Amino acid sequence: MTSYKHILVPVDESPISYAAVEQALSLAKDLGCQVTVMSVIAVDPFVGVDFYKVAPAITDYFMQAEKNAKLRLQEILDSFQREGVQVDQKLAHGVSPSDGIMQIADEVGADLIIMGSHGRTGFKKMMLGSVAQNVLTQSPIPVLIVKV
């Protein structure tokens, strides 16, 4: 069995990502490995909208999204630190979630990604996309998908 040294855990506001956090915490404690938790402030959802008409709304949206992500990451860091697990945090900006995950995995030298999946299938998956599926397809390192 491979002995993992650095786990990357992408999180968002969904309960499923917290299930992935719990799995990562348990595995990190058992293996004594480092963890990086991360979030992505995604690509601008207002692309194509007249920037000058909505600039304050865009600025407010991204400032609030970043504030929420930092709070979420800090709560997770605190829980890992209480358990004695070496942990760091990263925030990616302006990229798709899957690209951000892959960039940070490479940046920190992760050798395992643990992430949640909503388990969408069929039409919902086709229309909404699947970050987990994209990461599975792109990743040169193992990916553990947690579903609840």
From TrEMBL:
<protein>
    <recommendedName>
        <fullName>Universal stress protein</fullName>
    </recommendedName>
</protein>
<comment type="similarity">
    <text>Belongs to the universal stress protein A family.</text>
</comment>
<keyword id="KW-0963">Cytoplasm</keyword>
<feature type="domain" description="UspA">
    <location>
        <begin position="4"/>
        <end position="147"/>
    </location>
</feature>
<dbReference type="InterPro" id="IPR014729">
    <property type="entry name" value="Rossmann-like_a/b/a_fold"/>
</dbReference>
<dbReference type="GO" id="GO:0005737">
    <property type="term" value="C:cytoplasm"/>
</dbReference>
<dbReference type="InterPro" id="IPR006015">
    <property type="entry name" value="Universal_stress_UspA"/>
</dbReference>
<dbReference type="Pfam" id="PF00582">
    <property type="entry name" value="Usp"/>
</dbReference>
<dbReference type="InterPro" id="IPR006016">
    <property type="entry name" value="UspA"/>
</dbReference>
